[in-house]
Write a structure and sequence with these properties.
By secondary structure, the chain is mainly β. The chain is built from two helices and seven strands. It has one domain. A five-stranded antiparallel β-sheet has the order 1-3-4-5-2.
Length: about 170
Amino acid sequence: APVPASTHAYPFTTGRWPVGLLQSLRGGPAMSGFQNFQFAHSHRWALVLMVSLVALCAHAASSPAGQGAFTVTLRRQQIPLHNTGGMVHHKSAYYGQIAIGGPQAQLFEVVFDTGSGHLVVPSAMCKAETCRRHRRYRRRASLTAEDIDVDGSVVNPWQARDQITVSFGTGEVT
């Protein structure tokens, strides 16, 4: 059962990597099980990684808290892993809701990974079954989105974009 929500403030620096890796997204606010948040091993997603980071950092920079920080209410879910000699081991997942883009923000329920500085959301351009099962970021619905390359430079609309692969212990995303 989920533990009561707690509030944590995460500092963000505009234009740099924010804290939190979105391992996966769920289409609704309820969380029915951790399996909805796990990557399939070596499964690749078409992503709008950099666009989302810029949008999230822009939101943080304009937040009421100022100074590039905002508060995300986190909820914890404990997942039993295995039973060893009568002792059940648990893994905790922390998740919360963020808003990306503007003027009409797109809401995402995200899982935060304290071991990474990446935030990954599926793109509306991704047509894979894995992406279609989750809420996807619609870049064209945001007036604040900017496409950037891996070095942080802004990409013109007619230019090709960098494509990167980020590897994790549970798989990778492209």
